[in-house]
Amino acid sequence: MAQHYRSAYVRRPEAYAFTNWAAAALLIRRLFPAQASTEEPLDGLNNLSRDAARLRKTLDERCRLDPSFWDSASLADLDLLLAMAASGPDAPQRKKRQEASPLAVQMAYQQAILRGASARERASVSEHLDFLRALQADDDPLNATLDRIKEYLA
């Protein structure tokens, strides 16, 4: 999965492929910590924040010109992805980052939903969050945020 989304992102640098690749790569990093981040499909994780910032700039502009649910949801996905990267066992300053990220993630998803999400769009986001929740360690503090977002979607 990670390799396919990474290839898709390289061909067409859009948020959907990026966030799916990065989520899969973060899972690989958690399950196989000895794998070097310079090897496929983890290559690029070192640039996660930079790439997310670039995509955020593009999405912000698209939302300004022609707001859409999916672009807003992609902004929320980027926030969630960065929070997930910060919550990993090898993330530096885990507690400091964790304290700042969850509320921003929750608010970003709420803002996307307030744009007028259809039942199908809500279900799609909910399924995506279920998948990401399954990637997290059971004791990860980010799980409570994912649970609150899911409640908001219901």
Tally of separate domains: 1
Gap from first CA to last CA: 28 Å
Structural class based on helices, strands and sheet pairing? mainly alpha
- Mean pLDDT across the residues is 87
Number of strands: 0
Radius of gyration: 15 Å
Describe the sheet with the most strands.
Answer: none
Q: Strand percentage, roughly?
A: under 5%
Count of separate DSSP helical elements? 7
What's the SSE pattern? Answer: HHHHHHH
- Broad shape: globular
Give an overview in words:
This protein is mainly α and 154 residues long. It has one domain. Helix content is 74%, strand content 0%. It contains seven helices and no strands. The radius of gyration is 15 Å and the shape is globular. The chain starts with a helix and ends with a helix. 34% of the residues are buried.
Descriptive labels:
154 residues, mainly alpha
Topology:
Elements: H1 2-11, H2 15-31, H3 48-65, H4 69-87, H5 94-114, H6 119-135, H7 142-153
Helix pairs in contact: 1-2, 2-4, 3-4, 4-5, 5-7, 6-7
Question: Could you write a compact summary of the structure shown?
Answer:
The protein has one domain (2-153).
